[in-house]
């Protein structure tokens, strides 16, 4: 199924389930076709209340966050500098009848609608706005004292604060919406709430297409039904269109077709449904994630077009180890999200991609609590506004929800690492795609890790999403970048723990690591030298008391040690001797000193038994397995509860 077909079918699902135009769920609003919406900021939309005699009852600015749903035409929805009025809701320049081109075109269009399909609600509005001094009438309800300085620019005195101040408002940029008092003998009815009017306007628009001699009837390539050929597709982001205008430039079709309309024929109704659904997904609370600049990820289910299951493959995932041990491999809770994010990673965009709330994002997969039909389809798309006129589809995938579940389990099984925090104790951590990109390619700056080229980040994000959703392995370029980064510890003053954590999670599968526990029988050269590096670092750091800002010799020589382990091992052994003496003379730390010395002796013996120090092969650069030996040895040194808390404290200060 194509992206456009998925959007079309999803909109029809919304129609069948009464999800269209539902103002009770503003965060997931799906608009009726041939309609648009605008959000109030508390200053940009005035609503006037009129009685059935077309008399003004009241006027007020809508509260910040209020939404207005209003009818639009093909021309008005994409207007820029030309004259193209909306049928009802519009700015004061159009609505106030002052014999300008805008106001005249507004009333002519409205009267054409009334002549074709009379409606009491529209007639009441029409009869009011055609009266004289409507502007002054509305202003008198908004302000006690005001002055019109020029055209529709108004000055009034604001007494809401201790010191009164004069405020200027340009009403040519303010929009006007309507409500009718006790409409049809019932409650006050606003334009946004008038479902009957929405249906009538849709019908009127379709009838006007039929009356237009220039409207060409076609069989729509998306719906398979007879429809009128759409020449002007509604913009999706600003003025940029997901579906290009059929009157496109020659380079868009020459070589394969003779005429632009031979590329694809989409009906007006299908076009409206596709774009309205795409807009709803783009603004939806659970269906869209911003990747930076004008790039977004959209995801939804065929039977959950608002993604109420809150499924989000872009988030980092965390699972309680205790819960994992209690549950079976088939019926365990897969992922749990915590507010403990990768805080040192760049905050410019990371908190908008999905690492921002504490919630169980995969409740749907929990045993006994499946919230979606496993026979349903899952859709995920990446769209990018590549210019002011065009939105490009970067990626689209449709799959069975059951396969998605299998692929997510597979991904988490390969890409995770045990972690300890005070908030949720011991847990498995799977980094988000964004965290992987930042730690693989980010350069440490004042705000954290930053990837300077946003388009590069977007491409990498797409590759990781494809790997997660389609059940592929981690992209090799990410793996290679992480292998390089863990060799350069001093490049990450503030972000080392984040880099290390992500590296452990994604490299463990490549290195065949089955457990984070210290394996004292492991004889891999990289693993053993990694253990020694941890022991040298810990031994020296124990002499620093509470001064965690000092850099140990093991940290300073980290890169050199990883590249020439035998050579730098001898140097580090000499450098730590003064610190050994300090610990030996400190009665409170003598115990941990002997523990470290025993471990150094153990590892040294394993190396000498399995490798020849004199051979160049032994001194060649270590593989990425060294980081697992380092991490396992460091964790083993902290066996008591208080030691674990000290380790967590030190990691935060690293």
> Which class of secondary structure composition applies to the elements?
alpha+beta
What are the low-pLDDT stretches, counting only 5+ consecutive residues below 50?
321-372, 641-647
What does the largest sheet look like? 5 strands, mixed
Strand residue content: 15-25%
Helical residue percent? 25-40%
Count of separate DSSP helical elements: 21
Count of discrete structural domains: 4
Outline of the structure:
The protein is of the alpha+beta class and 654 residues long. It is built from 21 helices and 21 strands.
Features:
21 strands; 654 residues; five-stranded mixed beta sheet; 21 helices; alpha+beta; elongated; four-stranded antiparallel beta sheet; 38% helix
Write the layout of secondary structure elements.
Elements: H1 3-16, E1 35-39, E2 45-50, E3 56-61, E4 67-71, E5 90-91, H2 92-95, H3 101-116, H4 120-129, H5 134-142, E6 146-150, E7 153-158, E8 165-170, E9 175-180, E10 189-190, H6 195-211, E11 217-219, E12 226-228, H7 268-283, E13 288-292, E14 295-301, E15 317-320, H8 321-326, E16 377-385, E17 391-400, H9 401-414, E18 417-421, E19 425-430, H10 433-441, E20 443-445, E21 448-450, H11 454-470, H12 476-485, H13 496-511, H14 525-541, H15 553-556, H16 558-563, H17 565-575, H18 577-584, H19 590-610, H20 626-636, H21 641-653
Parallel strand pairs: 2-9
Antiparallel strand pairs: 1-4, 2-3, 5-9, 6-7, 7-8, 9-10, 11-12, 13-14, 14-16, 15-19, 16-17, 18-19, 20-21
